[in-house]
Amino acid sequence: DIQMTQSPSSLSTAVGDRLTITCRTSEDISTFLNWYQQKPGKPPKLLVFSASNLHSGVPSRFSGSGSGAVFTLTISSLQPEDFATYYCQQTYRIPHSFGQGTKLEI
Amino acid sequence: QVQLEQSETAVKRPGSSVRLSCRATGGTFTSYTFSWVRQAPGQGLEWMGRIVPILNEANYAQRFQGRLSLTADKSTSTAYMQLSSLRSDDTAVYFCARGTNVYDDLWGQGTLLTVSS
């Protein structure tokens, strides 16, 4: 199975901050990497697919980059509604494993 | 509006089986894959498997092989997940998600499964 390592696991932030979350995979997955946002009691929501493509309706302050085995999700200016947990997921090979999550806290 | 409607909360005894459903309202059922992802209390997301209804083909995470069965009923646009030999650590919220081979863009609200004696 492809191993996923997200960092950091949690982050204390503030409205207006710029932040970057990193996802590393145990092997080259090209750009088969997605990012999801999850709020408590809710299902995950797709933010970025194929490493750098913003899903429809997702604000432009979110961006994704990377290829191979290192990927990043950047939020350019944190808004109050962005405080959530973020997960990366690879869809290069089954099982489509997730990272352990990054929780953003105020 | 396209939605995934998941079955209600379930409570099961250890050793028993459960079948959860995920009905797609709107859209073309066979144009997509349907994945199942679970989340234990306070934990992260765990990918379990997926089914491709148009091929009637399912793939499973190794740790669930032999215990998990994914099926799809094209006539009712419903995907099913059956998990057998339930244990207490199967207690989790189970999500279904509709997507492609690349990503899942539509998720159900989740079904809480509690396994307890």
Mean of all residue-level pLDDT scores of chain B: 96
Q: Structural class, from secondary structure content of chain A?
A: mainly beta
Along the chain, the helix and strand elements of chain B come as EEEEEEEEEEE
How many DSSP-defined strands of chain A?
10
- Outline type of chain B: globular
Give the N-to-C terminal Cα separation of chain B.
40 Å
Major sheet of chain A: size, sense and barrel closure?
A: 6 strands, mixed
Q: How is this structure best described in words?
A:
The complex is a heterodimer of chains A (106) and B (117). Chain A is an all-beta fold. Chain A is built from no helices and ten strands. The model of chain A has no long low-confidence stretch (mean pLDDT 97). Chain B has 117 residues and is mostly beta strands. Chain B has no helices and eleven strands. Chain A binds chain B through residues 1, 32, 34, 36, 38, 43-46, 49-50, 55, 87, 89, 91, 94-101, and chain B through 35, 37, 44-47, 49-50, 59-62, 95, 97, 101-105, 107-110.
How would you summarize what this structure contains?
The complex is a heterodimer of chains A (106) and B (117). Chain A has 106 residues and is mainly beta. Chain A has no helices and 10 strands.
List the helices and strands and how they pair.
The complex is a heterodimer of chains A (106) and B (117).
Chain A: E1 4-7, E2 10-12, E3 19-25, E4 33-38, E5 45-49, E6 53-54, E7 62-67, E8 70-75, E9 85-90, E10 102-105
Parallel strand pairs in A: 2-10
Antiparallel strand pairs in A: 1-3, 3-8, 4-5, 4-9, 5-6, 7-8, 9-10
Chain B: E1 3-6, E2 10-12, E3 18-25, E4 33-39, E5 46-52, E6 57-60, E7 68-73, E8 78-83, E9 92-99, E10 104-107, E11 111-115
Parallel strand pairs in B: 2-11
Antiparallel strand pairs in B: 1-3, 3-8, 4-5, 4-9, 5-6, 7-8, 9-10, 9-11
